[in-house]
Design goal:
By secondary structure, the chain is α/β, with parallel strands linked by helices. The protein has 2 domains: 4-112 and 292-306, 2-Layer Sandwich (Nucleotidyltransferase, domain 5); 114-291, 2-Layer Sandwich (Nucleotidyltransferase, domain 5). It contains 12 helices and 10 strands. It has helices at 41-61, 86-92, 103-112, 144-147, 153-169, 177-185, 190-197, 204-209, 211-219, 223-247, 270-281, 295-306; strands at 4-10, 15-21, 26-32, 71-78, 95-102, 117-122, 126-131, 137-141, 258-263, 286-288.
């Protein structure tokens, strides 16, 4: 009788499910909408609907009956934390072993192929997560847009708008960020842009997407924008260094290089990525590289690992690393 394994990346923008077999082969995959909120009744209903849709489509692609599907092991990495989703998933998924964990853990597993190391995630927010050879873990950041998320997309735009407001009030230098942000938000001045960003029409993810605008202005040479992007890189490197010192306080060159990868839209900025890599490599014994696999594949790798299977998966067409 065949044995099956499940890996799920449940994110703020989409949910991706992968089904594999005991030979380490990916049989089917599917994507559906976001599944990060379950606090209200309507949130729970949406979460279950998205998960059922994603699992059913992945099972269909694998030519399996979703109603009768049982997994030897399943790993699901959830944005926003696993605590409020674990009970729902236990009712939804039939598995001998079921691990509901964070999206950071599966991102690291995918990035390093399951090896110890560090992952720094910088999208709308930011977080660093690490796991060492003893399976000890550490995290830094990820505290949300009010109290943390330094170096994330929202924080970049927040700092850029602060610079535009400083120019507006007459105590900050002139910067090309001001007209760029006014155009992007269709505002007459920085004050109006600020108030628009407080409305429901501008959720955090939409504001964070304007980090691309800040990066474009930085690439054109505007010193205020360049400083904004470089400070984002510094904050992200600081997060990486924090978890590194927690788990590898006495690591040196003789121990071999420590794997460190990055993921998230902020790292599409060459200014951020180049400075980030330079800063984290200054500490020595760190090897930076883009992720080997997607977080969804990291979840499937973790499911295989739960069953004692060491797999070297192929890249799945249609799923970005």
């Amino acid at each position: 009788m065949s044995e099956y394994f499940l890996g799920v990346d449940g994110g703020q923008s989409s949910t991706i499910a992968l089904i594999g077999d005991a030979a380490g082969k990916t049989l089917g995959w599917a994507s559906a909408g976001p599944c990060n909120h379950v606090s209200a009744a309507e949130g729970r209903a949406k979460f279950l609907r998205v998960m059922r849709e994603c699992l059913s489509q992945a099972a269909a692609q694998a030519d399996l009956d979703p109603a009768r599907l049982h997994f030897r092991a399943a790993c699901l990495g959830m944005s926003g934390g696993p605590e409020d989703k674990a009970a729902l998933l236990q009712e939804l998924i039939s598995a001998d072993r079921l691990l509901v964990t964070t999206d950071a853990k599966i991102a690291l597993a995918g990035a390093t192929g399951g090896a110890p190391g560090i992952i720094v995630i910088a999208g709308t927010g930011s977080i660093a997560f690490a796991e060492n050879e003893l399976s000890e873990t550490a995290r830094a950041g990820g505290w949300g847009y009010i109290f943390g998320d330094e170096g994330g997309g929202f924080d970049i735009v927040r700092q850029a708008l602060r610079s535009a407001l400083a120019e507006h009030e007459g105590w900050g230098p002139r910067t090309a960020l001001t007209p760029a942000l006014l155009e992007a938000s269709q505002s007459a001045d920085a004050n109006q842009a600020l108030h628009r960003f407080y409305t429901q029409e501008w959720p955090h993810s939409r504001i964070a997407a304007l980090a691309r605008v800040v990066d474009q202005i930085a690439e054109s040479g505007d010193p205020v924008a360049v400083d904004t992007m470089q400070r984002a890189a510094m904050h992200l490197a600081m997060l990486a260094g924090t978890v590194r010192r927690q788990l590898w306080p006495r690591r040196n060159e003789a121990d071999g290089p420590l794997q460190l990868a990055w993921i998230g839209g902020v790292f599409n900025s060459a200014i951020v990525l180049d400075r980030f890599r330079m800063l984290v490599e200054l500490e020595g014994s760190v090897r930076t590289a883009p992720p080997l696999h997607s977080p969804a594949m990291g979840a499937l790798l973790t499911a295989w690992k739960l069953a004692g299977i060491s797999a070297s998966p192929e890249q799945v067409p249609g799923i970005k690393t």
